[in-house]
Amino acid sequence: MPKITKMNHVAIAVDNIESALAFWRDALGLTLDHVEDVPSQKAKVAFLPVGESEVELVQPTAEGTGTAKFLAKHGPGMHHLCFQVDDIDGMLARLKERGVRLINAEPIALEGRRMAFIHPKSASGVLVELYELTD
Fold first, then answer.
1. Is 4-133 CATH 3.10.180.10?
2. Domain extents for the chain?
3. What CA–CA distances, in Å, run from 21 to 60, 66, 104?
4. Burial zone of 87 (CB within 10 Å; 0-12 exposed, 13-18 middle, 19+ buried)
5. H-run or E-run covering 58
6. Which of 37, 117, 128, 133 has a Cα-to-Cα distance from 90 of 20 to 30 A?
7. What is the pLDDT of residue 64?
8. Are 9 and 82 in contact (CB under 8 A)?
9. Which pLDDT score, from 0 to 100, does residue 111 have?
């Protein structure tokens, strides 16, 4: 049976990563590991490790993306929770069997990982990402 192995990250939608770092890095004291462009998600992401998890600051790089729509509707704030799983295919199959509404019925392959999103309507209003490491 597939299992959640840990909380991978909490994603915060931001208009501007540099401005957001004034709080998360400078005031709060988190260490910025790196910033990376994620073309498949049309986003730029800053990674700030916290123990075995991370805070990710997500800035959209194009209009019409999920993050851009979120910012337009809600403004900056918590965008999603991400759980690392040991078997994303098994977890998605399990969720489908239970009638959970998925945004991604099949995982999206990225470098070193596979991911899929669960619709907030199935998760008490919270966008949930599932994440499996492949390296």
1. yes
2. 4-133
3. 16, 22, 30
4. middle
5. strand 53-60
6. 37
7. 93
8. yes
9. 85
